[in-house]
Amino acid sequence: MTRRPLIAVLAVLMVLGALAGRFIASGSPASASAEAPATSSSPAQSSATGPIIVIGTGGLTWSDVSQKDTPAMWSFLRDGGAASLTVRSVHTNTCPVDGWLTLGAGERAGDVDQGNNSKPPCRTVDQGPGADGKVPHWDTWLKAAADKNFDAHLGLLGDQAASGGSCVQAIGPCAALGAARSNGTVAHYSPFGGQLTSALVACPLTLVDVGVVRDPADVDPAEQPVPRDSRVAQAHQIDNRIQQVVQQAPAGADLMLVSLADAGQTERLRLLAAKGPHFGAGTLYSSSTRQPGLVQLADIAPTVLSHIGAPVPGTLGGTALRNEPAENNSEDSAHERLQAFVDYDLASHEVHSLVPPFFTGLVYSQLAIYLFVAVVWRRRWGSEQTRLQLLRVVRRVALIAATVPVSTFLANLFPWWRFPWPMVAVVASVGVFVAIISALAMNGPWRRSLFGPLVVISVVTMAVLAADVMTGSRLQLSSLMGLQPVVGGRFYGMGNVTFALFATATLLLAVAVADRLSRNHSPVVAAIGVGVVGLFGVVVDGSPSWGSDFGGPPALLPGLAYLILAVLGIKLTWRKAAMIVGGTALFLVVIGFLDWLRPPDSRSHLGRFVQTAIDGGATDIVVRKAQQNLSILTGSSLTLLVPVGLVFMVYILARPTSWGSRALQRSYERAPLLRPGLIALLITLVIGFAMNDSGTAIPAVSATLAIPLVIAVSVQALEDDERGTRRGSRRGGRRSPVSPGAPTAAVAVATPAPEAAAPVAAPVDQADPPPYATRAQRRQQGEATRGSRRTGRGSSSRRG
């Protein structure tokens, strides 16, 4: 390829990149819609200052709240802002100690680890500060926080309140954990009961411990004391204590009810509600989750600090809560919001337990498909008609399997969690969309095209995932392959699983676009097509308002760059690889910086990471993510197969004829850009695997989409061969017809040519070079062609 077209392509890509950067920097319609709840809060709330009382409990969900049995809690729901609450801390289940320490630190904190037990028995706290005012076991918890890489500073709430000229009153033993200063001391403490009225007016911020619900059927058997009362009876007792606080609270104070711990070993979403002058009836919203009605425990500290006018550190993972007002505070309105919160809890709880069996079934079903394909490929059973039927079956099964991932997201359009048998309901919901997408892929005018069904499935996958992140990630939330609110790792944007599917669909679609354009246009036009598809994917994935994926673009951009070079016929050198790495790093720096320029409450985790790096805490985040990836990789014998699978992919792509893969080699002949496309995908998967926490999932999930689609393409190539062989045999030895798009040199002759003298046909390797050939390959091709011509002229003179 000459230098002028290359410069033109680079210029076009730079213009598109500049437009994308400007689009990201100026915000997007989705960002406005995603943050609409924040702007719809009342003006008084945005500048709210005044006393606030936080009533802390644990083990309660919205399913425990009713107008008849828990009237005090119901009043919070009816008259105040409410939301479901993620309480995940440093352990899988959150104990009361974990919840109160997290509230005081503004980041995930918890009790000491007990070996490898991710769900240790919960410690009982029944004593307040000692005579010296220090919380018992404080030094132990300080060490536990230091051993974790969550950058949690115990006592932050008390220290920030003091720096702002305020104090924190603790009422009850566990409340002292949240009110303590960084040295473990509590200046204002009183037990629950007694002089409750005077204690509630002592400080602008008051933390009240009203006890927790410990489910007798769910607690660890080793936990002491063993709960004696039923769950319902405990909830009723706590409701009575809440009513006492509400009745004796000073006029003009806001009250916040927080269930900040689990009821036992089962992790679930809990409840949060706030009422008072600055919290009317409505739905609470946090910029940290971008999900109306779903907030996290780390949002409590910045909310109460801003409420009393104390400084809020910009490095906290949570943000101040805002309230999206409801139309009224009627009982019917309260029932509607209660149903929405119960749906949040039920969906997250049910899907959390269904994910392991779903992935197990998905893996084994795909392994069965691969085994069936291997048998069909390596054995030629029966007649041509039988082989054709087997190939059609293999292709259809592969296409059906490729539609499963995107269908798991669309299944959330149905409220499957409300049915008595959630597993049956969710499988049926997935099956509906599998049938629709499969029918679309296999019955359109593109059904016999080599890349037709692949394009349909890739476009549907990209469109669904892109539209979802642009509109708030509602389909991903609590889906089988999406985000898990109860885990609290991510609430919006592209997670690792979503990125794996989106990047795979993007690269495969780019291959199909390049293949089509390279047949009818120049390589420059094909490269521009790849650039347009790739830039769309990078912008959707990396935009802070949409995908907000810090680890996605560094993996996707190098793969796209390699594919563009392959289309242009430019050989990848170390210098070009360094330029790709540098450009990718620059893109990330620009996106992170643009996000950091936004107000702290509007930043995604990209901007918060930049702020953390400025404050010197980036190392803890990197180390924690690396430890998570390593622990997942070594946690199971199946996950250890992921790097082995990547090495096997390298071997197959390096030697496409190995393992008797005639079908794969045939598809390369039909579509020369398929192999570079798969190499580009491999580059993306390897980088994504290495850079992301839980990166082990990226190659594994990508395989659930990529392998069935590649099988479908390869089988289509074989099916065309079999169909061509049948037509050739019917014509009694005449040349088989050329299948659409197949190179002329690859056409077989049914009967051997006669031995009479005839012009010598050019060998296969002397045919016109493919559009992705390098300049050196084109030069060698020309020399070989000229040599064959000289040989032909010499033979003619000798015959004369």
TL;DR of this structure?
The chain is mainly alpha-helical and 800 residues long. Helix content is 54%, strand content 6%.
What does this structure look like?
By secondary structure, the protein is mainly alpha-helical. Helix content is 54%, strand content 6%. The protein has 28 helices and 10 strands. Strands 1, 2, 3, 4, 5, 6, 7, 8, 9 and 10 form a 10-stranded mixed beta sheet that branches.
Radius of gyration: 31 Å
Number of strands: 10
Largest sheet: 10 strands, mixed
Approximate shape: elongated
- Report how far apart the termini are: 41 Å
**Mean pLDDT reading:** 81
Strand content: 5-15%
Structural class: mainly alpha
- Uncertain runs: 8-47, 733-778, 788-800
Task: Give the count of helical stretches.
Answer: 28
As a percent range, the share of helical residues equals 40-55%
Attribute tags:
800 residues; mainly alpha; 10-stranded mixed β-sheet; 10 strands; 54% helix; disordered C terminus
